[in-house]
Structure formats: structure tokens, C-alpha cells
């Protein structure tokens, strides 16, 4: 019986390899070869999954394009809501260079409402996980505000106030929606990570919430980026113009104990995030287009934690004739277990770059959408789609193999061109803030 089972198993393996690899392995001679090459099958399946994802990313096409606003502005940050119930509406929130937040329907990109009149520059937007209509925004005048996009009122449902000297330039919300954290510009000799308790956001709109506390010793310059762990609400990573990327466990009693790791990017941090299985890796991009990638799982081992360090991605990635002018951020694809970078050109081409410990490689280029620098994006694993926003004031939805239905290509490019000319006035003031 055992022999029969072995023969049957060998036959099944043989058929499998014959389909996938038959140019490589001659299976007719000996069924035992199938066991020898069994690990190769697994590797091949993994490679096929990654290759499939790469093909899907390279095959993204414009599905929707929002109607340009009467007051064009750079689209600086994008986030989408997670539906509370299957089939319910999803929203897109965009922070703009004119100090407003615009909200759109996720599928149609129809404009829904706008929150304007912020007294300072916005540093991002984030939807709550548990309540799909609640969106947060941070402002340089020292507050984080919470809005209910289903409400017609222009007033926030909650205001998280910082200390008098705080100028917020980064923020994030924990995956449990319990903690809000904002990072400040350096004031005199101080720079802060400020924390608030976000519970009960819809019950106490009449008063501003005071901070739970601050971290003040781990960075010595502007905190440009904050990112909570996607599944561990107590973990947060911060990046700064001092070049440091710090990982904290905020469940600890004090800042010294909370600081789990400090990594040095050797440059000013522009973007960062989590990647890898169980999100145990941290990556960052720098303002001079460098890239660093670390494995936090190696902290307690003798193995080096640095997976990859590229001083200038523009020189290491061959983007054919289009060139690579800048990086926007990172995208961890859970299904493929693969980290990708998003970069682009000043003319609006978007480059998709694959990351491995061996280096970076170009996966594909998305053309014909934007006509100026792309400043923001948001990946949706649910439908494998990508939202992008840029200095041409355009919000685009890309899907695999899509056909654009909202505007004809010719008309949309004409609109983009006219908008771009009008928003150029913002270019100098925005660039002066870039470190």
C-alpha cells in the first residue's frame, strides 16, 4: 500500500512539474526526480504569484478621473475608508495645498464635500478603521481634527489640541483607532511626538482633547513622518530630518523603555512604512531619493538588520527613456508578500519599482494620466486598485485592464494642461518647505 501511495504521489508531482517546468526536467526517466524537484515547485509557485502581481501592477489603467475643482490645488495626501459593512459606500479624502480637505465617492470619484478654512498647512488625512465616515487631519497650527463626512456641518466632531509651540507636520492614527500621534517641527531645541486618547470622538465635540503625553528625546529635528503598525496598535515608527527612524512600543511606561530600535538613514526622511510577513520590516525614503529597508525581526539576533540601502534610487533604477525624478512612497502587497516603491517624473509618469534584498528593479510605468509631479497615492488591496493625486490637481483611479469612462482621454488631458498652468503659483511656496 505504501509503495502504491508513493507511486501515486510521484505521478501527481510529475504531472505538476510537467505543466510548469517541462522544458527543464525530463520526467519520463524516473519518478524519483519529482521528489528531488519538489522544493523547486514551491519556489516556482511563489515566483509565479509575484510575477502575476507585477503584471497586474504594470497593467493598471485609468478607470476614473475626478472632475477638476474650480480652485485647483496640489493633492498632497490620499486615504480611503474601509466599509463598515460589505456593500456600503466608501469614501476618499484628499488633503490639498489650499488648506482644504476634499471628500469623494470611492468608486465614481464624484465630489461630495469640502472642509476649508484651515488656519495652517495640512499634513495628511486618515480614516478611522472602525467607523468609515470618520476622517482625521493634522494642521500646522497645532491641532488634529476629526470630521464626520456623512454630516453636512463644517465643524469637526473632535479637536485634539497640542501645546502652544507645536507645529504639526506629520501624524497617524493607530489601527485600533485608540491613539492619535502627531510630530512637530523643531521649536528652539525641542521636537515632539504628541499622543492623544482618541476614544469617544463623537461624544465630546464641545471640548478640545488635551494630550496624554509626549516623546521629546528620540529626535532632534523635524519629525516628517509617523506610521502606526498595521496590526499591532502599540507599535509606531517615526522619521525625521535628523536621519533617524525610530520604532516605539507605546505600551511601555516611558520613552526610554518605549524606544525599541533606532535606524539611521543617513539623510532626511521623507516617507516610511511597514512591510514583510507580520509587518516586521520597516522601510523609508529620503528627501534626496534614497531608500533604506530594515528587518526588526533580527534585532535580537546576530544577523544584520539592514536588508537594503540605496543612496540614490534614481541612479540604481533604469526607467528606460522616461527617467526617474523622485520617490513618492512604498506599497506592501500582502498577497505577493512583496514591497514595491512608487516613483515618477515631473511630467506625470508613474514608475512601479520592485524591492528585493538584491536591489531594485522597474516593474512598469503608468503613462497618460497625470501631467505633472505625482505627490500622493493610496493602494486598495480589496480590488487591486490605485488612487493617485498630483500637482496637476488630478485625482485618478487606476484598475487592472480598466477603460476610462468618466472623460475621454483627449478631453481630460486638455483639462489637466489648463489646470497645471493655474496651479504653478503654488510650486515655489510648497517646495520651500521641503527639507
Automatic annotation (TrEMBL):
Chain positions of WD repeats: 115-157, 216-258, 367-399
SUPFAM superfamilies linked to this entry: WD40 repeat-like
Gene3D superfamilies: YVTN repeat-like/Quinoprotein amine dehydrogenase
Transmembrane region(s): 7-25
InterPro entries, per database record: WD40/YVTN_repeat-like_dom_sf (IPR015943), WD40_repeat_dom_sf (IPR036322), WD40_rpt (IPR001680), WDR89 (IPR039328)
Coiled coil, from the record: none
Keyword Zinc-finger belongs to the record: no
PANTHER family associated with the record: WD REPEAT-CONTAINING PROTEIN 89
Record keywords: Membrane, Repeat, Transmembrane, Transmembrane helix, WD repeat
Pfam family, one: WD40
Top-level lineage group: Eukaryota
The protein's name: WD repeat-containing protein 89
